[in-house]
Amino acid sequence: MKTSVYALEALNEDFHKREVDIDSPDDDEVLVKIVASGLCHSDLNVVNGISPMDLPAVVGHEGAGVVQEVGKLVKGIKPGDKVMLCWTHCGRCEQCDAGERSLCEHWPAWNLFGKRPNGKKTWSDGKAEYSNFLSQGSFGQHVLVQESGVIKVNDDADLVALAGGIGCGILTGAGTVFNTFHGSRVGSSIAVFGVGAVGAGCIMAARSGHYSKIIAIDLHPARLQIAKEIGATHVINGRDSDVVAQIQALGGVDYAVEATGVPKVMEDAYASLKRAGTVAIVGIAPRDKKFALPISDHMQFGRKVIGVALGSAHPKTFIPFLIELYEQGRLPIDKLCKTFPISQINEAVQAMKDGTVIKPVVVF
What is the reported pLDDT for 143? Predict the structure, then answer.
């Protein structure tokens, strides 16, 4: 069938609208008409080449839409259902069996290389085939997604509102707090470095939990103001001369989340910890980047560094949980979002780069 996409055809260029053909769904796939999609920094990492992708490509991976057609092996999802989209996993490997869907052994092949598990690309214009990003490509009007990446929501769900990061950015941040730090004590303290969607998800989850001190660090005053509105008890501008000293003056923190991908910030997040504190590295950096830590701190202070993939979340259960928090008013993602018509996707990208909008949402 014919559809349209907003495609990236060369690095560091704008998205361009293209008319394309899309396949019918394979046996385990779902064809979804996109209503809205969040714009995530991971999408920009494809644009600037940090995350390599075979071009032309359709990025976007926080889609929300309506099911049009399902493959013959798909169960529990039918045409007309409203759905949220997320990354896919096999459900059968050692990691999936252990409950670690975000560490699925097939995750890279199924989500990062631009092809579906059947080896095909999703769209074609007769001259070129178009890669999809994170098993979606939700900057396309119609997408094909494996069943494991499709989460049914209520018939009265506001898909435009839910597209504001629940499928990736908010999921990653909130999941880091709820899932990865699940052993945190009542009254724990946390520092969040970078108030994008991931950092905001951390702050909202910490506020909804039992954290007594929530410190937000960012370079943009507008983002720090939003951080206060969604639950930060303290805010620090990262341009200040000694962020670590300011955090340690507040007593240090039990937990830190590094959501910028900047090696120096990773070091600062580590140095902000109390004894036995834990820093979660969540931000994406180029593969050749490294950061240095004092070895003695691990031995003398018991500090820990962990990597977190996608909030350690199982989308089929965690996304409905986040939606419930949103409906209760405990996950105020509306404060982060600004909607743009899909025709203004390049303006949405610029707003994210400028820091004026935390979570742009493009609407078809």
Answer: 97
